């Protein structure tokens, strides 16, 4: 929209800040009407295509050192939200404790996007097809949300399943900053699969993605996690399918029952990429294949 | 220089790096997007977004009043001229809009932001009209009329016949009939469309910086549309970011930019956004094809009967003329004694189609080559033998009057089949179907295309001026444009070969209508052949002049002299008599100066087709055969192209590096057409105007490529060469269709073979239809 | 009036200070006020790689990177690589391998190719192909671009001579 003098009635950025600490950043967010920019790989294209608008205040968080890093702490793996997707691909702790996340990082966009896109950005963008969200679900990830009131920072933790509310929508309050991601460390060796459907190794918005994480105990799976992407308003844990599989011998009957349960849990839409029907078919066929491969390995 | 043997390795067939590659890799090449003239304004177009409506009023007052806006124009402000193949397209629409991209108004402003602001201030009042979105309904009595003067919404129709298909069918032992559906794709050149219009303050002459592929035709068309004298229009072609046929017609944005420049009194640059490029560029011509074919039990083809319906969209561009090429494939790809062809292009409110690499041949070949496999199967003959039996040989004349003077068709078939182990693999795939969901298949398809120009315009010629300076540097001024295909390098090779000069001694000028001689344009894969012969002609005239002077200077008879290694040599033993530059200087600096400047206009010996569309329309024809190997996953419908084995009859390889690049790029373009590219036109609107959802092939998806060049040494082509630009894209989709059938037993008759489309087809064939 | 912000960064080896609108992208900055037109607009949304630049040695899409986010960083555009002896082998390989046709995607390909060489992805064709997945080309079919990067990646280290 434009005024008669040509000025844009759409919101333009009136203030730009580059805080160096979480407390400065959260104080800025507390003032309201602020957007956070990290890698900008979702935010900037959205402005360009008009599917988003700038907020009056733009807060760049890339200089906040406390938001970087990957480390073990107290039985958990802590990931800084500014960890780029490229960094996820090569980090040795990720490779050791959360390889399914590295696998998803390898399916993510392109080299140029991976170098800029951040874990935190992917989570807060909350795309139904977000490539990292399925592995984070499998890994029982929790997000740390920090905000400041009267100079005191408080933090709350939410399971990622709760954090993601709908397409582009999360539990993050405007004054909150995502300051960390926690993954519980699991002792036992786990099998993992992440399959993002597409004709390309990456550079695709997922039509469907399927993830499996479990402890293999003989012919049975335990601590089963099944997550699906791009088939519901948010990435989702297929808990009914998990319940079918938990502790059970993984035979054809179990697989069929698990897949049937998963199909009940999804609600895929028709869009320019695929029809809802085809997405259901893909979930059925890919999940079946994933489970059969889990048996074989 | 000594008297020793001066041997010169021939330049022909060598791997020669592209001459303009250095400036491109350094970021110094200036595309139209990179050129900025002093005082330049930004031009932008307001598009209707509506599919079919009467324009009741356009209010531009607020836009005109905006400071920094120098011109706002609508149809009322410009000459009532129309453009396009049938002149049915006014650059700015005044009475009604007929498709999504229609141009309502345009502005010229000081910045892009101001131009956008001005567009937002323009209000338009429409009266919506009923939509016509299904071309099958276009001719019905109650269909909305898109153009008042085109009853039944008929844009163009073509009819062709040779022999008698009724007789042909009667002689057939097998007759099959199928419907094929070919979809919308778009050129997606990496450089978006753009143009700069600049009127000279004093003379009023117009300079256009345009990426047109037909600069001289454009000059004439612009003169008409703008009501200007054509001798006052100059077209300069900046480095182009891809053509592929998208720049063969005059499209509204170019005259609009000129009208803006005229109205504003300042240069105007108009560049598309990528979304606009998808929405407003011409597409490949979609087609609905009904093909009926027959053959005898002994394998000989008997007839082809074709009925084709083309969606013409809102206006007529080159897409509606693709039948001229399609009928050549139906009539002459393999020996067919009887052929009947009919096509109707009908208007709708969908996007309109232009010319696109292959020009209809992809669509026609898709149908023909499906039937070649099906007919072979019906009579129990192997598909290679069936093709070889019906493949033409050198010397034959097709039913449409095309003389195949050089013809490597059978060589192409055998080479592609041998190198891919086609027959054995094909059989193995049938006999050993794997138990899992992933199956492999191989498929073969061939193509025939013009390779020596196409005489559709009054002249199919090209002019060259050659100038040698005092130091032996040769400048080639050619009318032939360079659109990334490497024509400038090929022309340099041909000229330097004639004159015995190294490639370091040559400059090519090819991008300014004030400087270069006429050429009809870069299309129909004609540039190496036609421009090459023109350059060689001028070079031979220069050589004759030089040797005549050399004979006088050396006292040797002319016929005993030659040009090699930058010097005049004794023809027999190669010993150098004098250097070329010394001779040139001696010709210049004498009482009667004699500079070596020659010109030559090459008109190929082809003919215009008669009113039955018959005649030898090209001076040579090109052939190719490709065998592809695919992997089909029936759990997902994903088809992966694993390998393409291609054998192309190119006459003669001039630049081995360049021709490989053309073939590789063409194959990958064909791969996109077959597997991933799909311009989603739904209810008249393009739903995927961007690279996120319009899927070009990316580097990791490229198959293994095995290329063979069959050199049939065409008698008319320069050094034997024929055209190759379009050929590699033409038969990929057809081969993939045959390969999918080999892998799964299912033949799919519509493109594209995207995963969901293939999945649905496989399910339907398994009598398990999709919901 | 858009909000302006002053930034300081190193561009192609030289320090520079510049005032830019906060929402201006690096692509707009390069092609506009800095008059460096080698970096191309292909799509404006990070899908085609024609605008690839190096920022602190990482390859990024300039069209979706805000210029203000480059404060304190080092940017290398195709013009910088054109003058960089360390990129001479790569540039020569692109020319000799026939990796250039219309050339519009070429600056992005060369910059991305440099990144692949710098991160030791230059010797395995499959890895190179993956590394180029974010760079679209309509002319070449990619094979000779992969050839060029492979050729540069496997070439013996030589003295800079460009």
How many angstroms separate the termini of chain A?
58 Å
Which regions of chain A are unreliable across 5 or more consecutive residues at pLDDT < 50? 1-9
- Percent helix of chain A: 25-40%
Quaternary organization? heterotrimer
Strand tally of chain B is: 28
Give the averaged pLDDT of chain B, no decimals: 96
DSSP strand count of chain A = 14
**Sheet with most strands of chain A:** 5 strands, antiparallel
What is the SS-derived class of chain A? alpha+beta
User: How many whole angstroms does the radius of gyration of chain B measure?
Assistant: 28 Å
Beta-strand percent range of chain A: 25-35%
How do the SSEs of chain A run, as a string of H and E?
Answer: EHEHEEEHHHHHHEEHEEEEEEEHHH
Strand proportion of chain B:
15-25%
| Gross morphology of chain B | globular
Sheet having the most strands of chain B: 7 strands, mixed
Number of helices of chain B: 19
**Shape field of chain A:** globular
Count of DSSP helices of chain A?
12
Describe the protein.
- The complex is a heterotrimer of chains A (297), B (771) and C (162).
- Helix content of chain A is 33%, strand content 26%.
- Chain A has 12 helices and 14 strands.
- Chain A has a 5-stranded antiparallel β-sheet.
- Chain A starts with 14 loop residues before the first strand and ends with a helix.
- The model of chain A is unreliable at 1-9 (pLDDT under 50).
- With 771 residues, chain B is of the alpha+beta class.
- In chain B, 28% of the residues lie in helices and 24% in strands.
- Chain B has 19 helices and 28 strands.
- In chain B, strand 14, helix 8 (323-332) and strand 15 (338-347) form a beta-alpha-beta unit.
- In chain B, helix 8 (323-332) packs parallel to helix 9 (361-379), helix 13 packs parallel to helix 14 and helix 14 (527-554) crosses helix 15.
- Chain B is globular and about 90 Å long.
- Chain C has helices at 26-31, 78-82, 88-96, 106-118, 125-131, 143-154; strands at residues 4-11, 14-21, 52-55, 58-61, 74-76.
- Chain C has a 5-stranded mixed β-sheet with strand order 2-1-5-3-4.
- The radius of gyration of chain C is 16 Å and the shape is globular.
- The model of chain C has no long low-confidence stretch (mean pLDDT 95).
- The A-B interface holds A 1-2, 4-6, 8, 49, 197, 199-201, 203, 205, 272-275, 277-278, 281-282, 285-286, 289 and B 62, 65-68, 113-114, 116-118, 120-121, 275, 437, 635-636, 638, 640, 675-676, 680, 687-688, 690, 692-693, 695, 698, 700-701, 755-756, 759-760, 770-771.
